[in-house]
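INFO  loader      accepted 1 record
INFO  loader      residues=756
INFO  predictor   begin
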Amino acid sequence: MVQSQFGRRQLWRALASSASMMLCALTSTICFGAEKSTDKVGIGTAKMAARLDEIDRRTDPTKCFYLSDRRVPLLRAQLRFVTNIIDTIYLRATLGLELLNAGEPEEGLAEFKKCVELANRTPGGQTAKFYAEMDRFMGMCHLRQGELDNCVVFHGPESCLLPLSPAAVHRDPKGARAAIGKFTELLTREPQDLAARWLINIAYMAAGEYPAKVPPQWLIPPRVFDSEFPLPRFVNIAGDLGLDMEGLAGGTVADDFDNDNDIDLMVSRWGSREQLRFFINNGNGTFTERTKEAGLTGLVGGLNMVPADYNNDGFVDVFVLRGAWLGATGRIPNSLIRNNGDGTFEDVTEEAGMLSFHPTQAAAWLDYNNDGWIDLFVGNESLGEEVHPSELYRNNKDGTFTDCAAEAGVAVNAFVKAVASADYDNDGRMDLYLSVRGSTNILLRNEGPVPGEKASTWRFRDVTARAGVGEPIGSFSTWFFDYDNDGWQDLFVSGYWIRNVSDVAADYLGLPHPGERSRLFHNNRNGTFSDVTKQAGLFKIIHTMGCNFGDLDNDGYLDFYAGTGDPDLATIIPNRMFRNDAGRRFQDVTTAGGFGHLQKGHAISFADFDNDGDQDIYESLGGAYTGDAFRNALFENPGMGNRWIGLRLQGVKSNRSAIGARIECTVKTPEGKRKIHKIVNSGGSFGANPLRQHIGLGSAATADVNVVWPVSGRTQTFTNLAAGQWYHIVEDSTNAVRLQVERFTFARRAEEAAGE
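INFO  predictor   done
INFO  writer      dumping tokens
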């Protein structure tokens, strides 16, 4: 008799462990190559491309949990050598799971069915828990097949948006109906299974039968998804613009790479063979891919990217982060990609002295020593015997950097998932906050130059305990922002731990659960923060991966969008949008605005791609396993009537990107005067907004603008700047120069207007 005492997570772990042991002997017999690029690229780029290709070819799939497509043939080969029925059951179950994760759910379903058949022939069979897990996996195979046959093959603007509209209902409901059958069997045996309850509701949505045909005892009522504010709908137009490229999880940078005042786009994917891609905004409602022409061919992988003008030449450069979540197999170099200013880019990582081999996706640009040149902090992932100290690269002002993390007291050994930088105590020095998964988060206060040591020696001090910002223990994305416009930077930290999707279901239903909630910390202006999560309406599971902030309605208060999920294909949960209600609380506007995408959400960029005065939202969608690819989305902002102002800041003594500069806008409204505060940066920690600053003004027609520069400390004041205009402000100037930024209409809208 097979003794099965496994819960769901334990079973998955056991299957993975069993697979790894069984596969090790076979890795030397199968090799995986990658296509060689024949494009002409720069020397540095070619060297990095070759290095990445070599690392990929040498990666052992038995030690990299996410390479399901490479693990499948090894498991199939192993089956030939297994004769024991118990080992066969577990090997086939492992194979079924790998096939599901590799994008072959029908083949995975066949393996799970064989497991049940074998268990039925075994004396004593299996426990009820085993059969329940097989039903769960089979239900997921059916549901995933339905997604592939419909949401991917017949992809449209409404695909996968919760709750599914008639346009998003599966054309072929076969997979959804089969999933309903399996989850019904599971719930009949285990009626308290919240994960199955959640998934059966999703399946009924896909079949076009939610909520009417969901059995009442299992229904998740539509009211739990209701929005708290009547935001107008944002339509996903990525497909019309050719920006809905398909792939796995990835990063996004939305910025003006060619200085023509139109926002371009760079997109990365974490897959080891997925090409970094670059799109130019043509300024007429269309985009053109320029990846090959830009000399980027061969630069693959990268879960996240962070932009800055590191060499002060006036062009935005990008740092690509690799190896996150991969442990020992994540010793993959990051890339510093220099913008040459002529439409091309060059990988200068080695030349700049930044070549290192650590798993990471977390970094932040900051001028920590106030010398006018932007530096870089990289938070690496240490776990168990895998020790990867974080790095602080000091800019040498000649195109090179020196790692001075140990000297500065920031060579942190922790599983860092996000980094945020701001001058939280308004002392003129940039500080650091590290989101650390599995242990206390870390606030590092910049203490400035060390007396008695060389002038270049600056030091940070851990002030987490005093500041009161150590939670949540299970965390991911983070950022500083002034959500209530009081002139002091507050702190958001996303929660990122659940047992499975049952915790999300419990949270929506108001039931108890152990899942990790996000935190919002209000700055007390004395070096400490207060936890105001509950008062702000954010004490809930958001389960955030990629996340960023912007101003949806130009009211001058910063909102945020959370890309949600985790590698588990059963974590089918909506990405969520939260509107800032005048600095008092945050309102969930996910369903009203059409943001509740059920696919895995990663990097987010808020940017005015069509220069029409409101911020659109670009999102990277796709999971971690090789078969969990999806198409990216671009949600067009329909506009809500409020006014705005745009500022492109240029440092002289301060860094050219003006990162860290403080902006204060004073506006007159019918309710009286008020101030709006913004710091120049690229937004959140996963996904990048433009470094030019878009600031909502509410109903105000003009704004008085103060800019405080980080190095010189100079305050510039400009009065009566007109709303609806872009201005160029240079640190040593006395005037704000109006920019000629041409508004245009996205191509699809133009065709509709012409009646085509």
